[in-house]
Amino acid sequence: MRVAMAARVRIGCDRQVPPETGRDDVLEREQDSSPEKPAVPRPVLEKVHGAWSNVKMCPESTAHAARRSRRIRTLVADDEPLARELLGNLVRRDPELELVGAAASGAETLAAVRQYTPELLLLDIQMPCLDGISVAEQLAGSENSPYIIFVTAHDSFALQAFEVAVRDYLVKPVGKRRFATAIRRAKRELSGQGSTSGTKATLTVRSGDELVSLEPEDVIWVEAANQYVRLHTRSRKFVVSQSLRQFARNLPEQQFVRIHRSTLVNLQHITGIRNSDGRYRAEMSDGSLQDIARNRKSLVPDLLARARENAGK
Of 11, 134, 152, 207, which shows the fewest CB atoms inside 10 Å? Predict the structure, then answer.
């Protein structure tokens, strides 16, 4: 018996995407007419957030259920049916990923992100109605923005990808090795181990027509500027098209502290605390003074202790 594991989806351009099937989408079960053998349990399709996402046999072991609960919710977005199928197959082959749905346009992708709240989004750039760059820009300001990996047929889009804070990109046709590398990086960051697993988390930002890689310790402080953030280093400043809340997710929590609604400071670069008529400011290694919000005064003792620690290094 064959059970197709794909759901009909509605796209933003008022056309239907037919259900897609592949070798990984079909479960083969042999029928045995012998009355002496016990009946094989019937496979059960588990429906997750409106999409047929996986097949399991009942009963399910506790250990298997625990492994499933830790999987990364993944959404695939591409207007080409074959590309969606191939990406979906790569996702399903990874036991740590859970395919929650597929989208065929930019508008449908935004709707699917709101509905399924994926942690990982494999996003094609050239799609009808709304391209992947525009989708990423809209998601950058949202609170539950997923980790985005662009999928494109042209590597010339790499600069635009990093400008909207996309973490990685894959060039079509997507190879298994390159896919695995990008997914390993995504897993590391999504698990919060980006800066503690032996590989330092790096920040890739755009400066003119070049991409610059920064280590977190290179950043002295970060300020919000409307829908952008400005990174301050010893020698240069960089502007990233991302909200402060979103950009903060790229930084190690134990190293950066938000002292004001518009300011993040690197604890490694605090050199002192100044108090003027009850107004506290953090003195940074670049000589700048950053205001500490009144509702964050409780941070002052720890910031002062860190400043003294830095002075002793």
Answer: 207
